[in-house]
Design goal:
With about 150 residues, the protein is an alpha/beta fold. It folds into two domains: about 120 residues, Rossmann fold (3-Layer(aba) Sandwich); about 30 residues. Helix content is about 55%, strand content about 15%. It contains seven helices and four strands; from the N terminus they run H-E-H-E-H-H-H-E-H-E-H. A four-stranded parallel beta sheet has the order 3-2-1-4. Helix 2 links the parallel strand 1 and strand 2. The longest helix is centred in the last third of the chain and has 25 residues. The radius of gyration is 22 Å and the shape is globular. It is an enzyme of class 1 (oxidoreductase). Belongs to the fatty acyl-CoA reductase family. Keywords: Lipid biosynthesis, Lipid metabolism, NADP, Oxidoreductase. This is Fatty acyl-CoA reductase.
Length: about 150
């Protein structure tokens, strides 16, 4: 498959991307907007409590990064922000909750509009595995601890 044909598959398509503030998703968003500016819409799921916070996170943590300098300075110039506003729609939500904490009307709209879904979401809590392990050990060894305490006392 030719690289150009991959970009063509995104023409006039709406894409939902989860984990959009992560490294790989930022790269994907920038590449799609640069290589296929005729994408219909990019819906970016952003962990945020409301639409304003999602928009702010999108502007500072995704579009505001140096990765988008080529789009900002060379391809779109002064019209960059209007291009982003037209092509990118931040969605406040959280993948760890049912329906991403999106309302029923939003879920219905996305189900009718989205052609492609890219799941780039991941947990970045590096202590999570450690905490689960410690809790499992504490629960598992508690009966032995009680037994040993009785034995030595």
């Amino acid at each position: 498959m030719e690289p150009g044909s991959i970009a063509e598959r995104f023409r006039d398509r709406s894409i939902l991307i989860t984990g959009s503030t992560g490294f790989l998703a930022k790269m994907l968003v920038e590449n799609i907007l640069r290589i296929q500016p005729d994408v219909s819409k990019l819906y970016l799921l952003v962990r945020a409590p409301d639409a304003a916070a999602a928009k702010e996170r999108l502007l500072t943590e995704v579009v505001g990064k140096g990765l988008f300098d080529d789009l900002r300075e060379q391809q779109h110039g002064a019209s960059f922000h209007s291009f982003i506003k037209e092509k990118v729609c931040p969605l406040p939500g959280d993948i760890t909750h049912q329906n991403f904490v999106l309302g029923n009307s939003e879920i219905l709209r996305l189900s009718q509009d989205v052609d492609i879904i890219v799941n780039g979401a991941a947990t970045t809590n590096f202590m999570e595995r450690y905490i689960k392990c410690v809790l499992a050990i504490r629960v598992f060894f508690r009966p032995f601890k009680i037994y040993l305490w009785r034995y030595f006392v």
